[in-house]
């Protein structure tokens, strides 16, 4: 905190703490939104199409293949 104040990024400890609290609240809102929106949707997609699920053993291979396809424009 002192370093951030000394560099002039924050005017005081109160400014630093307020900014930190705002950042934590924003992060918490993002997590709540993810839990309420994305997780249930992904779970329902899995229930609707369990054959599309990827095992943990194959996950990195699937991610790598997807990455390579995106590099090639596919």
Q: What does the model show?
A:
This protein is mainly alpha-helical. The chain has one domain. The chain is 73% helix and 0% strand. It has 3 helices and no strands. The protein has helices at 2-6, 13-48, 59-71. 0% of the residues are buried. The model has no long low-confidence stretch (mean pLDDT 95).
Task: Provide tags for this entry.
plasmid, mainly alpha
Can you give me a brief rundown of this structure?
This is Addiction module antidote protein, CopG/Arc/MetJ family. With 74 residues, the chain is an all-alpha fold. Helix content is 73%, strand content 0%.
Helix and strand arrangement:
Elements: H1 2-6, H2 13-48, H3 59-71
Helix coverage percent: over 70%
Fraction of residues in β-strands:
under 5%
Runs in which pLDDT lies below 50 for 5 or more consecutive residues are none
Output the helix-strand order. Answer: HHH
The total count of helices amounts to 3
State the end-to-end CA separation: 46 Å
Give the radius of gyration.
Answer: 21 Å
* Total discrete domains: 1
Average residue-wise pLDDT: 95
The computed structural class is mainly alpha
- Total count of strands: 0
Largest sheet: none
Q: In one word, what is the shape?
A: elongated
């Amino acid at each position: 905190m002192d370093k951030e104040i000394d560099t002039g990024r924050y005017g005081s400890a109160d400014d630093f703490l307020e900014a930190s609290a705002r950042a934590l609240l924003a992060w918490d809102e993002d997590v709540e939104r993810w839990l309420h929106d994305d997780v249930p949707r992904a779970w329902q997609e899995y229930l609707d199409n369990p054959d599309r699920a990827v095992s943990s053993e194959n996950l990195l291979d699937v991610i790598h293949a997807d990455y390579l396809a995106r590099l090639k424009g596919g």
